[in-house]
Structures are given as C-alpha cells and as structure tokens.
Amino acid sequence: MKHFATRLWDAVDQKGNAAMIGLDPRPDHFPQPFGMRAQNSISEAAVAMKAYHRELLDVLAPKIPIVKPQAAFFEALGVAGYAAMLDAMAYAKELGILVLLDAKRGDIGSTSTAYAKAYFSGEACPAADALTINPYLGEDACQPFLEVAQQHQAGLFVLVKTSNPGAGLFQDHGQPPLADQVALAVHRWGLQNMNGCSWSSVGAVVGATRPAELAHFRKLMPHAPLLLPGFGFQGGSADGLQAAFDSNGHGGIVNSSRGILWAHERKDLQHIPNWQDRVDFAVDEMLQALAPVQKAGV
Amino acid sequence: MKHFATRLWDAVDQKGNAAMIGLDPRPDHFPQPFGMRAQNSISEAAVAMKAYHRELLDVLAPKIPIVKPQAAFFEALGVAGYAAMLDAMAYAKELGILVLLDAKRGDIGSTSTAYAKAYFSGEACPAADALTINPYLGEDACQPFLEVAQQHQAGLFVLVKTSNPGAGLFQDHGQPPLADQVALAVHRWGLQNMNGCSWSSVGAVVGATRPAELAHFRKLMPHAPLLLPGFGFQGGSADGLQAAFDSNGHGGIVNSSRGILWAHERKDLQHIPNWQDRVDFAVDEMLQALAPVQKAGV
After folding, report:
1. What whole-number distance in Å separates Cα of residue A210 and Cα of residue A289?
2. Residue-wise pLDDT tens digits, A184-239
3. Closest alpha carbon to B148 in B160, B133, B138
C-alpha cells in the first residue's frame, strides 16, 4: 500500500477535487425516512444512522475523495452508535472513499499506542486511513501515534489551530504562539514519515480565519497535508484557501459537514424531490466553489 | 443527586481513602482464566474483558471509592470492547463505585455537547460520574462540557499538567507556562460549578513531579479536585502528594493502574493462590502508603 499522503493526492486527482465531507450525524437532521425511524428510541436511531450512512455514502462516492466521520455523534448513541460508525467506515472503504476518523484522540505511552492500533491496525475496527489527534500531552504522547501510523501507512492530522472563536485562549498563548510551536513539532515529526515523497503523512488541522494566517502555517509545515475545516456553515468560504495548495492542486483538503448533510432541509432546494439529489446538488456547489482555489495554488 | 465533588468526598470518607484504580485492560496481562480465553480472537478477548472487569470490580468495591476506565484499551477491541467498557461502568455504579471515564475528549461546539451528553446523560451509555477532557481547543470548546456536566451533576477533570516526560514541550510553553494558563481557566470555569460547596466539580489532572509544583497548582486552583496520576508503575510515590489535600483528607484522588491490575504477576505474591487476593493485597499496600498523605493534608 502507498503511504497516506500519496493515497490522498491520488484520490484527489481521481475525483478531481479536494473536498472532504464530515459525517456529523444528528438524528434530528436526518432526511426521511431515517428521521422518522430515529425518533422513538436510541436503538432505532442507531439503526437509522447505519442505514442513512450507507445511502449517503452511495451519493458521495462518485465525487468525494475522503470523508471524516466525527466520533462524538456516533458515541452519543452508545454501543449501537459506535457500531454504526465502524460500519460507515467499512462501507466508505468498500466504495473507495478514504476515511479520516475525526476522534481527536490523545493520551500517553501505551495508551496512545492502544488508540492508534484500534483505528489503524484493522484488527478490531475497519482501518482508518487517517486520524485526528490532540497534541496537548506532548512529544512522547504523539510518538506512538506516529509509529503505528507509519507501520500501517496511515495518516495523522494534528490539531494545530482550530477555527472556533475561543481557540486563541491556549493556542495563541506565548511568544511565539503555542500553535506555532505545535506546527514546528508537526513539521519535525512529519520528516520521519515522508517515505521519499514530497508530502508527509503527518498533517495538521488549520482553521485559519485569514489568508495570511494560512500562508504562515503552510510555511511552518511545508510538507504537511492541511485539513481546512469550516467551509460552509462555520462561516468559512473557499476564498483565501489557495495558500494551502501547490500547483498540482495538492496540499489541502477542505471540509464541509452540515452544508452537505443538511442540504435536504434547504428551502431553495425543495423543487428537487429526493434528499439524495439535494445533497448531490450541494456537493456540486461546493466543488464549483473549490475549483478555482485548487487551480490557483502556488 | 448531590453535585460531583460532594459525591466524591462522601465516597472517599466512606471508604476511608482517596485511591482510584485505573482500568487499563490489556488482555496479555489478564489473570487466568481470562488471559487464556482472550488469546484466540478479538471477540473472545472482549468477552473475557467484560467478565474480568466484573470480577475485578467485585474485589475493588469494598475498599475503592472511584475507578477510572481508560477508553483506549476498550476501543482497541472494537464494538465488543466498547460494550465491555459500558458494562464495566454500569457494574461499577451498581456496586456503588464512582466512575471517572478517562477518555480525554475534546472538540468544539455541538460536537463537545455530543460527547458530554453521550457520557453524562445516561441515555445511550451508563452515566459516568466524571470525564477527563483535553483543553487545547479553548474556552468555547470546554463550555459545552461544563454546561452538560452541570445539568447532570457530573464532574470534569481537565488536563492541566501531565506526568509523561515529554509533557513540557507544549505545557511549559510561554511565560507563564501554558499549564498555568490552563489552571487559571480551570479555576475560573470551576467557579460556575460550586453549587454552594467549597469544592468545584471542575477538577484537573495534575501529574506534578515535585511537591512544590503540586503546591503551585493547588494554589492556582484552590477549589478543584486534583486527579494525581502515576502512583506506582509510572514512578510516582505517595511522598509529596500532601499539597493536594486539606485537613479533611479531601482535595485529591490518587490513581494506580498497572500497580494493581498486574499484581497477580508479582513474583513476591505467588504464595497467594488467587489473583483476586493478590490484587487485594496490592490495594492494601496502596492504601497504607496513602494513609499518612491524606492525614497530613494542610
């Protein structure tokens, strides 16, 4: 198997875009019939969640290179929700979509190893192609993730700068700001995981709110694939994302979650009879918005 | 229901100690017959994990006020492992042991809410009494955890200073160090969650390696219950933990995981025929080591 960064850009090239869809399932926003089915009990909600994702992934598969299941919304339904997450991961892989599990795990030593093996080894869960991790616990806490990822040719996306308004309280702390310190570590860690390519499999989450900020982080981490959150509902747009991309259109993946998942609720799309076609319409809009960004990469 | 801090000190008073046992299940360290049963497949390992915890918790229940399941080791066995974790949580509660779920979750906005509801609401999982969270994402990322915890009279332990050797890379960053900045936030957040008591339900993980350091964090967070990791195998001892405790013996809970769980492997305990009695012996040793610490609190 090729290393993660290569698989990622291959998928981006094949589908012709760098869009990622976040799977943040909230039963009160499921399309019908799944919404109705999810109403009565947690266990029925989990059954609906599993069925919904299979149909959703069928819609996404022809156009989308990578999906990002958000563990929290699955764990919210307990064991059956957790099983629905693993099913969605397995089904996405079956359809040829890469899977970045957004679980933001982080611990120390053998505990980090346990998380990494859980999601990369393929022994107990379908092997994710990549995982988000939280760096707060430091160098030796991240190292086991790096080692296990390398063994399984998997990727990591380390939280560097998040897009929420209160992110700065800790991420901007110190001089240089903490996020820069983390970015330098991500760059250093990534050098272990290049596999002779120009991109590392150690990426970063960069919720930059200004183009100059994104360019700054790109400079600090020249080889890191960047996960760019907040397209759509979180108020971000495609403008200003160019700095993440190179002239091949590689370097970033742009996430949208609710902008796609909730498309079936849009008043302006009520003339489209199926929820699947509304989702597909929103995907097309997103790809159209992203196209110039990727092409204008530096 | 009383608020978490009160429940915690009630349990400490009732059992007469502030010991916490970390449930870090590793099938290759299970006592027999569980070790044998766990060898053949992931699903058999998960069955053994569930059965083992029920017997282990029976041993711990008479003496131990609180246990700390470590999510990573359960997730390592997939859906059945996750189910074994929830079963251990439910069974501990049934036995009157408090449950601090060590999952170190952290995300933003509605995603943080989803995690908090998953583990505090009791809807899909047995309600944990408390949860560890990672503060890296900042103020508005932690706020949903605080709100949901408050609704369910649950506790939080925010990672402030961890005990691993590489923790300093980010936690010591800046002036004052980041960990101090986090401690000040924990104190501020905790004031929302005092419920008229002298202790808050917003606690902190403080893996202080020197007594002066622990005293420093106690001063920054005068109302926060402190989770003190690393007793036993991680090289910590009871010496120097006094600063966490007040004159009632409240203020800290001291965790041991492998020191207790692996007691059945100790060469010096081979004269004790049952693994349960070896574990109980190691618990007694721990409680003996802790007794003067709690009594000497300031």
Report:
1. 18
2. 999 999 998 888 889 999 999 999 778 899 999 999 999 999 999 967 644 556 77
3. B133
> Which residue does chain B place closest to A161, by CA atoms?
B137
Whether B221 contacts B5, CB under 8 Å = no
Alpha-helical (H) ranges within chain A are 4-15, 34-37, 42-60, 71-75, 78-94, 109-120, 139-151, 168-171, 178-191, 211-220, 258-261, 275-295
Given a contact cutoff of 8 angstroms between Cβ atoms, the answer to whether A227 and A257 are in contact is no
Q: How many CB atoms lie within 10 A of CB A104?
A: 27
User: Between β-strands A155-161 and B98-105, what pairing exists: parallel, antiparallel or unpaired?
Assistant: unpaired
Distance of CA B147 to the CA centre of its chain: 21
**B127: containing domain:** 4-295
Ramachandran assignment for A249, one of left (phi > 0), alpha (psi -120 to 50 degrees), beta (any other): left
A136 and B171 within 8 Å at the Cβ level: the answer is: yes
3-state SS assignment for residue A157:
strand
Q: How far apart are CA A234 and CA B275, in angstroms?
A: 53
Q: Please return the burial class of B13, using the count of CB atoms within 10 Å of its CB with bins 0-12, 13-18 and 19+.
A: middle
The CATH number that applies at residue B58 is 3.20.20.70
Question: What's the pLDDT at A284?
Answer: 97
> Total structural domains in chain B?
1
* DSSP symbol at B164: S
Three-state secondary-structure class, residue B159 = strand
| Cross-strand partners of A63 | none
Maximum CA extent, chain B: 54
Interface test with A, best of B26, B75, B147, B258 (most A CBs within 10 A): B75
**Predicted TM-score (pTM) of this structure:** 0.97
The pLDDT tens digits for B199-249 are: 999 999 999 778 899 999 999 999 999 999 967 644 556 778 999 999 999
- Only one residue has tokens 């009791």, namely B122
Nearest to B28 by CA among B272, B280, B264, B268: B264
CA B55 – CA B242 distance, rounded (Å): 32
- List the 173-212 stretch of A: residues with Cβ below 8 A of B: 173-175, 178, 181-182, 185
